[in-house]
């Protein structure tokens, strides 16, 4: 077909490209027909199916042009599956399958190769192997019964049927329940059940091994095994660990790269051993290994050559340890390191097909053509490279490269197509490429032709790109740019050499994605939250990236416990960290162009586990060695170990600290005290905290011994005279060292008593000795004693017996005047024998009687103040300061010892000389006018002498270099002075008193005269419906002045407010009508100072509303009912009164006098009062039944009538809520008591009552 297409030379360029693509697709289809892929079918037979790779409909149209023939070779011999009636062969491929359901299949076991051929050559498949075996069956076996003693180890065998496929084994009971496995009971990889030691609870007769073969879909049930555990006749003793599987000290394993490997470590022992794994020749990779079956299995998945090495399992319990070494050798089946490429070639070219493979051991590489060995001398092989020189059209074929080592073989087909075709560029013109900075990009320039076309690339600004080290042209014509930079952006041109065929490509280089804040390495305590952040920057021209988190290279979204993670954009949160969360966490920011990643880690730390295996060794009278095994430190190294002890024979049992040792220690020697019973425990401490205490040891008791020390703090605390009190600090009972502990107290006088000691033994301090004299020196000491002997010789100390009060006062007390405020007090030394104790010092009592002018206090002997001054024992004089001048004092001196104070010396009186006075007590400034200032003051509270007078100095403070003005010789009896000052200046005043010794301290004030006041003119207004608020700022230095606010309603007359003070700063003008315009002004001294116009808020229908309210029918009815009720009651009162009664004329006259004497509240009812009525027993008064007939009732009636009148009158409601009266100007109307509406408040506040016109 392609030969016919070549003859269409005169067709359009578009048609020619279509032809070429068809050829390429056909060529590609040719290659795809030779791909032979295996697959596994159900059952125990492994089959390999070869089928064509699916392509488009165009490809199918090409397939029909060239017929493909398939043939099979089994074990090197031709094999035709179509001749076997048990096999069925596919029509469109060489696939065959077994259709027989029963019968033997062993004849199909072998190694198969498939050959696919057409006119262009023969392709060969990789070798496929079919292995057949019989269905596993249960062999006849004897029942197994085992009888062991408690604490021994035992193995229950399974012995599954032999098979090339490992079965799945389950140990179950007769109710098909799984046997519970743990560190003590574990199933081995061989199927056996291992007991590190047995207990009585393990006894049962239904241990059943069930063997399952999933591929064969059968389960083989073994005979139940009976296990009988006999109780031990003696105490079950612990046993050192011993290996059960594998046995011996070491074992070796050979495994192929990519396979899985399980290293097993099952040990016996009592208690059950703990298992630990290490790599002896390196670090055990946690990412490439995992532990299973309670750490009894170390599992490698997809093992690699780097895993080769030595591994060690350590089994540990309280009795010891045992190890087993595993030598792991990883080899590899052959794999390709460089595959040969299929290509088109033109006649005469030299073809080189490179084929390189690797493996352990290294594989052997061979070449063949169309499945046959090479024989043409033009075809040579060297170091795996097949060279074809001067190729011809007949060299078109399929070449096979095969690599073989002892493990397996691999084969790959390479296609050589020798043909002559014109050059073409298949890549589209104007393709846009985008790449991130630092990445690699390939600009495609796919060509077709034979011989192979050569192309060159040029850049828009670079020119020829061959010299650029970052840019290289690939064999297929593509331009590869590595480590792209922003300057690489632009247009590139690909040109076929010796032709005008070109295409262009546009390259846009974007900023690379960077992680600006990577996740950190966190150390998190178990149970606490962990937060990993991953902040990044992405080029704005890219779409939003995908942020993906991995833990130990596995995606978190694919992990089995993905629900525990909280991922919020670039933040990963683990709310409750556990041990399994430990690992390396990688943040991947994935865009369409690049990937940025950064890693952090989480290390789970916690308090250490308690130490184990606490043992005491090397016991001695005063020491014991304590050793332990460290527990898990949970990734936080142990800093120190705390050893605590408990006294078992002490009533208050509590653990106390005994010693601390460094964290790398596992033993220490403890110092013990005699005659105590100890037991110990150990606590490990790391940065997180303390571990739980370990198990405590057995009790160890130490023998008794004499005391090692004597009590400390031996001293005399004697207080009472003639008594010696010896005391000391009691020794801790742990220092008694034995039974019968006592204190041996010894004392003797320092002088005159000789070398003999007085001795007394007591159980506890103190010891009191009487009749030893006052303040006598004694040598004292105390020794510890028990039944085993005495403590070391004690050191003596000096103590004194009790003191008594001093007998005498100091003599020759004198006073020397230093100044008006200081004196020096002197006295003669006291006789030591009269102190009767240790002299502590002297006490000076200073009595103040008042100033010189108040001598009566001295005569009466009543000081107004007493103060005390203490001195040291070696002082015989004292300077006293801070005395008041011109004052009377007295003082006395007494002796002080530890007992107290002795008698005082006779009082010595003295007076201080005159001094300068203190400042005047007060200074007030008063300004009656703008130019006058009156100063008022009071005399000094401390004149300190005879006050002669005052001196006043003042100066202006708001002008520089103003002279000080002086007013001298102000008599001491004067208390004020008037000054004429500048009204525009501020002054500072200094007022001092003086005595014959000079001037005293001043009192200082600042001030200025006050100016004549005027009403405010800077007024702010705020209007309401019936009022307006006026605010202003009062001016400084102005006297208060009263004024009126005048207001005029449109079409009304001028009215004014009550009197307002300028110092108020605020006033509310009330009684205005809503929705009305007003003109406001303030006049002062026949001159308008301020004027403004306002309009109150609201509609101007206030009167209409009020009128409508009064004329409402319900209101009229209510008032009528009240009036009618009152009239009825009054009529009843008049009728009652008109009936008369029997009473004397005198009483009536007195009643009339009383009636006339009372003021009448109402003209109409003044002479008719129920209270004047004379009541009798037969004629009771109406007032007894009604409260409306008394004085209060009539007054209330009058008041209610008045209130009613106010409601009906215009503007009466507004008048009740304001102190402002709408009255004519005061200048046009007189004020009188009968017209109180004109009375104005003089307090600057509104009137409290509203009066009607």
Automatic annotation (TrEMBL):
Indicate the segments forming the Fibronectin type-III domain, all copies: 610-705, 707-804, 809-915, 919-1013, 1015-1099
Q: Which GO terms describe its molecular function?
A: cell-cell adhesion mediator activity
InterPro entries cross-referenced by the UniProt entry: FN3_dom, FN3_sf, Ig-like_dom, Ig-like_dom_sf, Ig-like_fold, Ig_sub, Ig_sub2, Immunoglobulin_dom
Q: Supply the alphabetized keyword list.
A: Cell adhesion, Cell membrane, Cell projection, Disulfide bond, Glycoprotein, Immunoglobulin domain, Membrane, Repeat, Signal, Transmembrane, Transmembrane helix
- Annotated Ig-like domain residues: 68-132, 136-219, 241-329, 334-413, 423-504, 512-603
Query: Which residue ranges have biased composition labelled Basic and acidic residues?
Result: 1145-1157
Q: Report TM segments.
A: 18-37, 1114-1135
Q: How does it sit in the membrane?
A: Single-pass type I membrane protein
Disordered: region residues? 1145-1165, 1208-1253
Q: Which GO terms describe its biological process?
A: axon guidance; brain development
Q: Which family does it belong to?
A: Belongs to the immunoglobulin superfamily. L1/neurofascin/NgCAM family.
Task performed by this protein: Neural cell adhesion molecule involved in the dynamics of cell adhesion and in the generation of transmembrane signals at tyrosine kinase receptors. During brain development, critical in multiple processes, including neuronal migration, axonal growth and fasciculation, and synaptogenesis. In the mature brain, plays a role in the dynamics of neuronal structure and function, including synaptic plasticity.
Q: What is this protein called?
A: Neural cell adhesion molecule L1
| Native source species | Cyprinus carpio
